[in-house]
Amino acid sequence: MKKNFAIMVISTLVFTPILLVSAEETTVAFQNPSAGISLQYPSDWQKRENAMGVGVVIAVLAPRESVEDVFQENVNVIIQDLSASPMTLEDYTKLSENQIKTLLPEGKVFNIEDFTLSGLPAKAMIYSSKQAQLSLKYLGVWAIQNNKAYLVTYTAQQDKFETFLPQAKAIISSIKIN
Q: Is residue 152 helix, strand or coil?
């Protein structure tokens, strides 16, 4: 059971992102009442709902910068049911960190810090890995409530991580968990 859960967590942290605001930017409101999630995202980003993997509530993709752009930076929100294997925020964080370091190609954790997601105690982790030919950098933020993990991941090519970080942070800060 723990092995299956470990695979689910690492899939959530890595594979989903591949599937996958300034004050002047116009935003679009997103609400999913059945998932109990709402957020705001930039109007020039593409929305994808429930189509990118298990537990993915929404993914929003940054606009392509050119026709040669091979990867669209993105933010996705995943809800994981932890009822079969309940854990604390600290346990989830340790599991995630271990999986990134051991299961991802060239997985490296840069830092983990306390965070708040929709008023809930949370963790924020910056990490990197290789996916095929791409060097990716991530900002993962998660909170646990009622045996559910709410995971938000911003994924970017390493050299573009800072470019879209302000928009990603604005999306993350707009998230409301009901």
A: strand
